Amino acid sequence: MSAAAAAGTWKLGDLEVNRIGYGAMRLTGNGMMGNSDGTPIDRAAAVRLLHSAFEQGVNHVDTASFYFSPRRSANELINRALASWNDDVVVVTKVGPWRDPSGEWYTMARPDQLRGQVEENLRQLGRDHLDVVNLRRNGVDMASIAEHFGALAELREAGLVRHLGLSNVRPEHVAEARAIAPVVCVQNSYGLDWRRADGSGIVDLCREQGTAFVPYFAIAGLRREAAAVRERDARVHTVARAHGATPAQVRLAWTLHRGPHVLAIPGTTDPAHLAENIAAGALRLTQEELTLLDGPGAAGS
Questions:
Q1: How many CB atoms sit inside 10 A of residue 110's CB?
Q2: How far is CA 53 from its chain centroid?
Q3: What whole-number distance in Å separates Cα of residue 149 and Cα of residue 137?
Q4: Positive or negative torsion for Cα 37, 38, 40, 41
Q5: Is 106 an annotated catalytic residue?
Q6: pLDDT digits (tens, 9 = 90+) for 55-103
C-alpha cells in the first residue's frame, strides 16, 4: 500500500482518489493573493517533487489557472510532470476569480466568461477534458451561484468537464448547485483554528450527501498563504510528542478524523515536508486527543 493510501480513499464522482492529495499553489512562488511572494521552485525540481508525490501514492492534485507568478504556472508544471508519468492522476481545478497576464486580480468572471476559463485550464494542462472543476464563489457579495454553476453544467454536458464541485460556499449554495447538476466536492477553508465549516454544518452536510469535503489551509489556518511559523498551540505539541509526529502532521490528522469524506490537499515545495504531509494519513489520534484538540485552546496558544 502506498503512503498516501494509508488514510483510505474517496470517490470524486467515478474517480477514486487517496485521501491525501497535493495542493499546487505554492509551486508558483506566490500565494493566491500575493502575500507569500518568494523565489519560485526550479522547473526541474518541481517536476521531481510532483513525481515524488505520485510515487508516494498521491493521485489528487488541486490547481487553478490563476496560480501563477511572473516565472511559474502551476498548471504548466503539472502538465510537465504528467507528460512523463504513466499512472492516472485526478486534477481538480477551479474557476471564477481570474487574473490578467500582469497578475492583476479580478474578483469574479461573468457566467459567459467561464467557458474561456475552462478552455484556458485545458490548454495549460494539455488535456481534452478536465476531471473536476470547482466554481469558486467570490465572498459575501455573491448571494446566488445558480447562473454560474448552470454555465459550468452546460460545459459538463458538452464534455469539456467530467465532474463539478464548489469552493468557498455555504450550505444554501450547495443546495442551489445540486438542483442543477451533481456536486462531487466542496472546498472550503477549514482547520483546527478556523472552523466556520463546522458552524455552518457544511462538513456534516457533505458527509450526509456522500460529497467530498476538501479543506484548504488545513495546516496554515488563519495564516493562509503565508510562510509557516513555529506552532504556538500547546495542545498540538502535546499530541505531536505522543506520536513522535510534527505539529503539521497533527493538524492534518485532526482534519482527516472529521470523516472518511474529508480529503487533504497540503502544499509544499520541500520534499521532506511533502513526505511528512503524506505520512500524516497514517496518524491515528485517540478519542482523548481529539477531545483535547476540539476543546478550548491552551493558555498562550
A1: 9
A2: 15
A3: 10
A4: negative
A5: no
A6: 999 999 999 999 988 888 999 999 999 999 999 999 999 999 988 888 8
User: Given the C-alpha cell 498562550, which residue does it identify?
Assistant: 300
What sign for the dihedral angle of Cα 51, 56, 61, 67?
A: negative
Give average pLDDT by consecutive 10-residue segment, the chain, 301 residues.
91 97 86 56 93 97 91 93 94 93 85 96 97 89 91 98 97 97 96 89 96 88 57 89 94 95 94 95 95 68 37
With contact defined as beta carbons under 8 Å apart, do 253 and 16 qualify?
Answer: no
How many Cα atoms sit within 13 Å of 262 on the Cβ side?
A: 23
pTM of the model: 0.92
Dig out the grid coordinates for 48 from the structure.
521531481
| Residue 227: Cβ-neighbour burial (10 angstroms; 0-12, 13-18, 19+) | exposed
Residue by residue, what is the 3-state secondary structure of the chain?
A: CCHHHCCCEEEECCEEEECECEECHHHHCCCCCCCCCCCCCCHHHHHHHHHHHHHCCCCEEECCCCCECCCCEHHHHHHHHHHCCCCCCEEEEEECCEECCCCCEECCCCHHHHHHHHHHHHHHHCCCCEEEEEEECCHHHCCCCHHHHHHHHHHHHCCCEEEEEEECCCHHHHHHHHCCCCCCEEEEECECCECHHHHCCHHHHHHHHCCEEEEECCCCHHHCCCCCCCCCCHHHHHHHHHHCCCHHHHHHHHHHCCCCCECECCCCCCHHHHHHHHHHHHCCCCHHHHHHHHCCCCCCC
> What count of other Cβ atoms lies within 10 Å of the Cβ of residue 297?
14
Residue 77 and residue 82: Cα distance in Å, rounded? Answer: 9
pLDDT for 47 equals 96
**Candidate list 67, 106, 190, 216, residue with the active-site label:** 67
Cβ neighbours around 24 below 10 Å, total: 26
